[in-house]
Design goal:
By secondary structure, this protein is mainly beta. Helices cover about 10% and strands about 30% of the residues. It starts with 8 loop residues before the first helix and ends in a 15-residue tail after the last strand.
Length: about 150
């Protein structure tokens, strides 16, 4: 079966930019004479998987060491936004040799498809994974139509 796929070059450019930003934000920066690594204060963004089935879109975001009360999910003007913060709680009794994980505030935004019901978004948070359910409208769900042969 052949399907027609629309090509959206600007969307592809945005995806490329996001991938490059994620790639470069993961590596610590080197300063000075390369003898010591500095601690990078780059923004971090949790990794997400977005899947779709007949009933809904599902966004799974990895949020290790983030507390449920530090995460917010909002839908406004056709955009779903996940915000939150992973806090660095430095213990004075410990000597830190390396800190590679990123801390601080994060924001991830996604365009809500036209066929989704933005007012019925639900979210759950367990084991460091946020799951955001975005149901599809009834008109978007596949229907079977009986064909009568005369």
């Amino acid at each position: 079966m052949n399907t027609i796929t629309s090509w959206r070059p600007l969307k592809e450019m945005e995806e490329l930019q996001n991938r490059l930003s994620n790639l470069f934000s993961r590596f610590p920066t080197r300063m000075g004479d390369d003898k010591e690594e500095s601690i990078s204060t780059a923004e971090w963004a949790p990794l997400v998987d977005i899947t779709e089935d007949d009933k809904e879109y599902l966004i799974k975001a990895e949020l290790p060491d983030v507390k449920k009360e530090d995460v917010k999910v909002a839908v406004e003007n056709g955009r779903l936004t996940i915000t939150g913060e992973r806090k660095f709680e430095k213990e004075e009794s410990k000597k830190y040799h390396r800190v590679e994980r990123l801390y601080g505030r994060f924001v991830r935004s996604f365009i809500v498809p036209d066929i989704a019901e933005a007012d019925k978004v639900s979210a759950e948070f367990a084991d460091g994974v946020l799951k955001v359910h975005l149901p599809k409208s009834e008109k978007a769900k596949p229907r079977q139509i009986e064909v009568k042969v005369a």
